[in-house]
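Request: Not sure, any thoughts?
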Amino acid sequence: MKLTLRLTAKTILLAALFAPLSAFALFEGCAQFFPNQQIPSSSQIGKDLCFDDFAVYYSPIDKKPIYTVERLNAEQFQGKHPRRSNRFYEEARLPRSERALLTDYRGSGYDRGHNVPAGDMHTEKGMTQSFSLANMMPQARLNNQGIWAKQVEEPTRHYVKRAHGDVYVFTGSTGDLGSIGSNKVTIPSHLYKLVFDSSTKRAWAFWIDNTNEAHMTPPISYSELVERTGIDFHLPLVETKSNAVKPAHTVGGWYPVFFDVYATKKVDELNAHIKAGRVARIQIEYDQNADLAKRIAAALETDNGVRIELTQNSPPASSTVQYERNRVSVIVHQK
């Protein structure tokens, strides 16, 4: 009997040691940031870190997030936006051997790239905490300040401001292009941002190369992101009439393209997608810049029957929120 008990205890211990650590990432105290409080499943070894406005599943091996999650809604962007702190700091909750150091990034040629953006923060404390190095990944400089900020983070906020409920955003990175610093912070090869709208039960993901020369591509499906990352985010996606999960290729079938001025390259890329038969319809939204909106509409080739809808969308005046009133948003709905 004693032998049996010892063997059982040993079996349980071994199972605990070799089971994926994500099974024990409980995120106690911040499970509210996850859809239906369901924690993603991952075979990657990590530690769960709760912050006031977001959560991080952190890799002590790679010294960067495996993924981060935040729960956003339009109301959060109506108040006064906290001032950006720009004070990066090492995460003291992690042992020194498991944390990224300020010196790791110094002179590396890579930016300290936010996973949870400072621009999403709506409280002073959240803003300060977003500069923890536990929320950073080594990111190509022009990528961080260009395509990622302007064509991934900004469109996501643009969507949240118009959503009818909570929008959950997961951000992370994968791959290995080497490391920086004495603590060997892994440089990822690809970055992703997964957006889940709880009101429509639909999701899509941005997938970007971690290079200065990265180009914007249409979002990928949820199932494709799961396959590429090995992470099951347990999203309660929309169901079909047969009560099965809707096929991935129908999820997240749109993406925005922003114009502050007329950009021939952007128009040419849109026309290329139209000619390739990838576009079902296009919505062009503008506030004050009707001339630019009409010029873009006229330049898009629609011989194949793609419908273009031109609408004026003027948010109400606000003393706390600034709107880009001359900007034109082209919403591309994919087939």
Observations:
- The first strand starts at residue 47 and ends at 50.
